[in-house]
Amino acid sequence: MKSGDRLNQIEPLVAEMLIKLDETAAKVDKVSEDVTHLRIAMQKSNDIASKQSDTISFLLENQMLTNDKMDQMKDRLDKMDNNLNEMRRGFVEHMASQQEIKLIQESILTLLKNKN
Questions:
Q1: CA torsion, points 86, 92, 98, 101, in degrees to nearest 10?
Q2: 92 exposed, middle or buried (CB, 10 Å; 0-12, 13-18, 19+)?
Q3: 104-115, pLDDT tens digit by residue?
């Protein structure tokens, strides 16, 4: 076989391999582009997750502060209830002593009337 014949046999194979190489390169470019899009999407997802995490942390901290303030308010209300109960007891005692004074006054008045 002559060298020209060999070259004629090899040329179609080389052309076919070059076509397949171009197709493979195009597929690699497409996959690279897809990977780049995925990286960008993952970065955006990470950014969103980070922001949501910050937001959740902020909300939890505020909830804890609110709970502490509510506990403080409950304590104050309990103290106010105790003070109010003490005031009521004092008022009842005062009214009882007023009744006693009134009875004593009536008794004195009765004694004075009977003396005359």
A1: -90
A2: exposed
A3: 999 999 988 888
| Token pair belonging to 116 | 């005359």
The ranges of the chain with pLDDT < 70 are 1, 116
Average of per-residue pLDDT values in the chain: 93
Among all chains, which residue has been given the structure tokens 């597929």?
27
For the record, the structure tokens of 78 come out as 């309990």
Token reading at 107: 């008794």
Residue position matching structure tokens 């502060």: 65
